[in-house]
């Protein structure tokens, strides 16, 4: 079974530039998550989709971050403009159901972003 | 609010040593509790979970017991191997809400 695919694996940009990350979840998984993992910290949820609808984006900095999952399958997370403090690993995860059913999350390998 | 506190790392042990990684939590209601592991160069993967008080989750020789009275979910393994070297994350899932992770504990096992 193919896992959660993310690209690119690494990205280096200068502050004020824009960047986009892509995620393709496991086939058939309804729920997709984007997490931000800053060095030395645990992952923090940025946004959660159920099919193509947003379930939780309470911790997404909406002035600079955006995400979409137009067809309920793959997803794109964008940062525009980037700040130094956005340097982190961006993790995508998917699950068959929702957190309410304690579904196991499957994580991709992440995109490591460095903002200079 | 909901939060998870893990013991500070890094933790370095010799092969075949006994492992404990402490995890305590604060939550409203009765959350489910998880341990996720991240091996070098890989994504996080679920190691074990417990969904109610006194439940014991176990996998690959690791165990953790959901202790409601001490709000803890400590991870243990009787005899660690070099291949157990990874970062371990404790997490909780309050009912119908998002997964909340601890800061992670880096474990290194020396041969």
What report would you give on this structure?
The complex is a heterodimer of chains A (116) and B (111). Chain A is mainly beta. Helices cover 0% and strands 47% of the residues of chain A. Chain A contains no helices and 11 strands. Chain A has strands at 5-7, 10-13, 19-24, 31-37, 44-50, 53-56, 65-68, 75-79, 88-95, 106-107, 111-115. In chain A, strands 2, 4, 5, 6, 9, 10 and 11 form a 7-stranded mixed beta sheet that branches. In chain A, strands 1-3-8-7 form a 4-stranded antiparallel beta sheet, with no helix packed on it. In chain A, strand 7 and strand 8 form a beta hairpin. Chain B is mainly β. Chain B is 0% helix and 50% strand. In chain B, the strands form 3 sheets. In chain B, strands 2, 5, 6, 10, 11 and 12 form a 6-stranded mixed beta sheet that branches. A 4-stranded antiparallel beta sheet of chain B has the order 3-9-8-7, with no helix packed on it. In chain B, strands 1-4 form a two-stranded antiparallel ribbon. Chain B is globular and about 45 Å long. At the A-B interface, strand 5 and strand 10 of A face strand 6 and strand 10 of B.
Model regions low in confidence, pLDDT < 50 over at least 5 residues of chain A: none
Record field, number of beta strands of chain A: 11
N-to-C CA distance of chain A = 37 Å
What class, by secondary structure content of chain B?
mainly beta
Compact overview of the structure:
By secondary structure, chain A is mainly β. Chain A is built from no helices and eleven strands.
Spell out the blueprint of helices and strands.
The complex is a heterodimer of chains A (116) and B (111).
Chain A: E1 5-7, E2 10-13, E3 19-24, E4 31-37, E5 44-50, E6 53-56, E7 65-68, E8 75-79, E9 88-95, E10 106-107, E11 111-115
Parallel strand pairs in A: 2-11
Antiparallel strand pairs in A: 1-3, 3-8, 4-5, 4-9, 5-6, 7-8, 9-10, 9-11
Chain B: E1 3-6, E2 11-14, E3 19-21, E4 23-26, E5 32-38, E6 45-50, E7 56-59, E8 62-65, E9 75-77, E10 86-93, E11 100-101, E12 105-110
Parallel strand pairs in B: 2-12
Antiparallel strand pairs in B: 1-4, 3-9, 5-6, 5-10, 7-8, 8-9, 10-11, 10-12
